[in-house]
């Protein structure tokens, strides 16, 4: 009941301003708002494109740039060529939901290290990376071409904030003490990839269906343990 009250308050403040707003809209306007709300909460959001699976060749051709004082450009294939990799495509570094997912993936780091599999993240903008880094226990790269967000780039706009599952996720994450901000481009949906070494291929691919649609860490770890790792140092 407490959660429902918070959701009602969130909707009132964020989208209506006050309960009187529906009165001002009139009956037709209120029906339209309710109709949009129902559409936005369907299991498959009609306002979001369906994902298209990436191929290994497509991702391998991605040019990535490092952060820090020693900037350099590498090809994405270097990340997984020797020991495979778990790669998070971050929707927005300032997003509290992205930060919580980063923490969940980072909790796998000990098991990944034992198997010799590195953990990486890619972002599509520089903004907020320094603030995001404490939530993620791996190196972060810039994917300026946004290839890890394709081949079909998918976005979620206002409809995402009308989904009750998203609202509940935001409230739950705030209660855990994870904070965030509204800075940056947050419409582009991200995902998580587990890529095998060499030509082993993409062993796991998760595409966000909505804000806060985290990859299943058990599935991520199970896929990572299938990677054929080498004894060569995985550092670039």
UniProtKB/TrEMBL annotation:
InterPro entries: PXL2A/B/C (IPR032801). Keywords: Cytoplasm, Redox-active center. It is found in: Cytoplasm. One of its GO terms (molecular function) is antioxidant activity. It comes from the Eukaryota. It holds the Pfam family AhpC-TSA_2. GO terms for cellular component: cytoplasm. Its main location: cytoplasm. Belongs to the peroxiredoxin-like PRXL2 family. PRXL2A subfamily. This is Peroxiredoxin-like 2A.
């Amino acid at each position: 009941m407490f959660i429902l009250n918070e959701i009602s308050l969130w909707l009132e403040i964020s989208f209506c301003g006050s309960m009187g707003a529906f009165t001002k809209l009139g009956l037709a306007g209120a029906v339209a708002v309710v109709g949009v709300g129902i559409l936005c909460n369907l299991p498959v959001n009609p306002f979001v494109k369906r994902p298209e699976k990436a191929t290994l060749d497509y991702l391998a051709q991605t040019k990535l740039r490092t952060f820090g004082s020693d900037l350099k450009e590498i090809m994405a294939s270097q990340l997984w060529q020797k020991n495979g990799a778990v790669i998070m495509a971050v929707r927005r570094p300032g997003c509290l939901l992205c930060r919580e997912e980063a923490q969940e993936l980072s909790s796998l780091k000990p098991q990944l290290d034992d198997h010799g599999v590195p953990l990486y993240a890619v972002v599509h903008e520089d903004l907020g990376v320094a603030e995001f880094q404490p939530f993620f226990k791996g190196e972060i790269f810039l994917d300026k071409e946004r290839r890890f967000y394709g081949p079909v780039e998918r976005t979620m706009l206002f409809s995402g904030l009308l989904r009750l599952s998203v609202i509940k996720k935001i409230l739950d994450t705030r209660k855990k003490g994870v904070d965030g901000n509204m800075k940056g481009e947050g419409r582009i949906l991200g995902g998580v990839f587990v890529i095998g070494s060499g030509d082993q291929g993409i062993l796991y691919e998760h595409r966000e269906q909505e804000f806060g649609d985290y990859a299943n860490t058990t599935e991520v770890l199970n896929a990572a343990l299938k990677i054929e790792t080498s004894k060569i140092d995985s550092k670039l």
